[in-house]
Design a protein that fits this description.
Blueprint: H1 3-9, E1 16-20, H2 24-35, E2 39-42, E3 49-54, E4 60-66, H3 79-85, H4 88-92, H5 106-125, E5 129-133, H6 134-141, H7 143-149, E6 166-167, E7 173-177, H8 181-190, H9 195-206, H10 208-211, H11 218-225, H12 229-239, E8 242-245, E9 257-265, E10 274-278, H13 283-293, E11 297-302, E12 315-316, E13 319-320, H14 321-327, E14 331-334, H15 340-349, E15 355-358, H16 364-367, E16 380-385, H17 400-407, H18 409-412, H19 427-450, E17 452-459, H20 460-468, E18 486-487, E19 490-491, E20 509-511, E21 517-519, E22 524-525
Parallel strand pairs: 1-2, 4-5, 10-11, 10-15, 11-14, 15-16, 16-17
Antiparallel strand pairs: 1-3, 3-4, 5-22, 6-7, 7-8, 9-17, 12-13, 18-19, 20-21
Length: about 525
């Protein structure tokens, strides 16, 4: 056992856990509690998942996972009915033009991560019991889409079906990632593609993370069908784009995060956490959002002038609805990370912090001298990355759809009678954020037990692995495809904008002071 693994086990070392249930949530509870050092046994409660944790000092904590929780929709009894009722089938199906069920147990897996996170929070705050549900986890996974649908202004985006992956003349299906328009244009120019089609394709391609669909011009698909994958790889190399074949499923990681010791003695107790978050897009902001829902004071580290995504349409008064879904209630400090003096100011600010969380690209922390070793002693230093400590050979850019393609998750999210393709719903970004929050609390508990600072790392690869761990093969033809708008006797939700006014969801969903749809905490501590 390595030093990092040994310290990792200290979080719950000496504890025993009895875990009941056969759902994906129960599978995650067993795997993650075992990875945290608990001795795990099988219980017999008749729920989707339940765990009773007894610490080495005798304190007892319990987590219960129901299917519906406070969501008052009759008939929620499995993954498929929850996906149908809570908007997951609607969002995942946008690329295809009609609702489709995910072939993996995304909602149950997310609920399992929430359960572990809630259990760790219960240990830290001394609460005997906590509850969550698969339905609340499902709503959390579509929270950005829900916020946008219920915003003051209509979405000025094209929601027609369509999108990658692309196919080559030699039959290779692949994803392409270009984060800026110059790289996008250069990639297609290298293939001799009509420039008007390239310009028309950028906006739907760029917004696919926000809309879960990408109706790009057919001319782009035709361009890739006219060349081989070797030519695609050359175009990517000269343009700076990243491309990735749609692979077969890979072996998932043994655990979704890592924890290692850092220098210095921790001076904070872990109560009333102060979290500084330098995150972009979804993964790190989602992790910090969950920590905020658990009572932490979260302070975003934003560039001069503020996060540009604050102004991303659709808006709720003066702020982006999607931005609010992940960043509501956070404070902010502006720091120019390119300025050495500003970086030093950030180091001073972190003296009073418990947690520093970021999702910077590989190498940035080292270049800016903002690694765990460069920051004040005793911190929980958390990095939510793309590929983490995985051993994949030559991985592509670590973004959601590339991770789905490279790990083979793209093959499992759709039934066998459909071509393999990543879901354009941000599956691993959101789940990666949930796992990031779980990893932070594991780090906080480890710090409390050892009195030392720790560095934790979670990844999109770990999130994909959590989904892969529950999938044995491609789903059969027609799997989780609604019939006459229903699944298992439950109506498939097709209008996210109607949810905030639906009394069946009133206990978990309301509107904030800007009128933006807002989910409450998915945990209830008793």
């Amino acid at each position: 056992m390595t030093e990092a693994t040994a310290l990792h086990a200290l979080a719950l070392e000496g504890a025993t856990a009895s875990v009941s249930g056969t759902s994906a949530a129960a599978r995650v509870l067993r795997a993650h509690l075992r990875a945290l050092g608990a001795e795990v046994h099988t219980g017999f409660a008749e729920r989707p998942a339940e765990a009773v944790l007894v610490l080495d000092g005798g304190d007892r904590h319990e987590v219960v996972v129901d299917w519906a929780g406070p969501v008052d929709v009759p008939g929620l009894r499995d993954e498929a009915t929850v996906q149908a009722a809570c908007g997951v089938m609607h969002v995942h199906g946008r690329r295809s033009g009609s609702p489709r069920g995910l072939g993996v147990d995304h909602c149950g897996t997310a609920a399992g991560v929430l359960a572990v996170t809630g259990l760790l929070a219960a240990v830290l705050r001394g609460a005997p019991r906590v509850r969550t549900s698969v339905a609340e986890a499902a709503l959390l996974t579509v929270s950005q889409y829900l916020a946008a649908a219920g915003a003051d202004e209509a979405e000025a985006v094209d929601l027609r079906p369509g999108g990658p992956p692309f196919t080559t003349a030699d039959g290779v299906r692949f994803e392409v990632e270009a984060l800026v328009p110059e790289v996008w244009a250069a990639f297609w120019a290298a293939l001799g593609t009509d420039s008007a089609a390239v310009r028309a394709g950028w906006r739907p391609y760029q917004f696919r993370y926000a809309t879960a669909t990408a109706p790009i011009p057919e001319a782009l698909h035709a361009a890739t069908r006219a060349v081989t994958f070797a030519q695609i790889a050359t175009a990517a190399m000269v343009s700076g784009a990243s491309v990735c074949r749609v692979h077969r499923p890979v072996q998932p990681l043994e655990q979704p995060w890592s924890i290692r010791p850092t220098a210095g003695v921790a001076t904070c107790t872990g109560d009333d956490l102060v979290v500084y978050e330098a995150g972009r897009r979804i993964q790190a902001p989602m992790a910090a959002h969950l920590l905020g829902l658990l009572g932490a004071k979260v302070i975003r580290v934003e560039p001069p002038g503020g996060d540009p995504l604050r102004g991303m349409p659709p808006m709720c008064r003066d702020l982006s609805a999607r931005w609010l879904a992940l960043n509501r209630g956070k404070d902010a400090v502006e720091v120019d990370l390119k300025d050495p003096a500003d970086r030093q100011r950030l180091r001073y600010l972190l003296v009073d912090a418990d947690v520093f969380l970021h999702n910077w690209a590989p190498g940035n922390a080292e270049r800016w001298r903002l690694t765990a070793a460069d920051l004040p002693d005793g911190l929980v230093y958390a990095h939510t990355s793309g590929w983490g400590g995985g051993d994949l050979v030559d991985p592509p850019l670590g973004t959601d759809f590339m991770v789905q393609a490279r790990t083979g998750l793209a093959e499992l999210v759709r039934p066998a009678d459909e071509e393999p393709a990543p879901s354009l719903m941000t599956l691993v970004d959101v789940l990666g954020g949930l796992i990031g929050a779980e990893a932070v609390l594991a780090g906080v508990l480890t710090r409390r037990r050892t009195g030392r600072g720790v560095a934790v790392e979670s990844s999109l690869l770990g999130a994909a692995g959590a989904l892969l761990a529950g999938a044995k093969s491609r789903p059969s033809p027609g799997f989780r495809v609604p019939v006459d708008g229903r699944v298992g006797g439950v109506d498939v939700l097709t209008d996210l904008a109607a949810l905030p006014g639906d009394p069946r969801f009133a206990a978990v969903l309301g509107r904030d002071d800007r009128g933006c749809p807002a989910l409450g905490s998915p945990w209830r501590f008793l």
